[in-house]
Specification:
16% helix, disordered N terminus, 170 residues, alpha+beta, nine-stranded antiparallel sheet
């Protein structure tokens, strides 16, 4: 069974906590601020209860764009820098990439991705009021590159309605 390194980054860019897990449902790779749990939206997943009613605190981004990986966060000075991080992720199953923007157009503060069996999972951090909600969708490497490039250039993501809420084990 594959083990994933998971962590949450606080609003100052420091690792707030980290853990390891062997399942993919509910993994969160990027900026969280504080985690807020809700009480509804329960589902069943292999006999384990899950919920999609988990929200995170809003994340402040003081730079136009920043990119985060297993190695930390830094200013995303160019699309090529972000693209290099994505190619590293495609080659290393333990890597992830988070692209955060200061101008959250259409409510999307960040896009994050990691490998899963059969493709790449792309998650969006959607700002709703005073919190952030995660939605996700599986893509190919080429589609993932396109999503990140468009987000880098315009702070927009197409077809947000096709993403589904991330399920977290309770």
């Amino acid at each position: 069974m594959r083990e994933f390194n998971c962590f949450v980054i606080d609003d100052k860019g420091d690792i707030a906590y980290n853990w390891k897990r062997t399942d993919i449902a509910g993994i969160f790779w990027g900026n969280a601020g504080d985690v807020r749990e809700g009480g509804s939206g329960m589902a069943q997943s292999n006999g384990r209860k899950t919920t999609t009613d988990i929200t995170f605190g809003k994340v402040a981004c003081t730079e136009p764009r920043k990119v985060g990986t297993q190695d930390g966060e830094r200013t995303a000075a160019s699309w090529e820098m972000v693209e290099d991080c994505l190619w590293d992720m495609f080659e290393d199953k333990d890597q992830f990439v988070v692209l955060t923007v200061a101008d959250a157009r259409c409510g999307v503060r960040y896009v994050q991705a990691a490998q899963i069996e059969g493709g790449i999972i792309v998650q969006l951090g959607l700002e709703e009021g005073d919190h952030t909600r995660l939605v996700e969708r599986q893509y190919s490497e080429a589609e993932c590159l396109r999503i990140f490039q468009e987000f880098y250039q315009s702070s927009k993501v197409r077809h947000i309605e096709k993403y589904t809420p991330v399920e977290f084990f309770v």
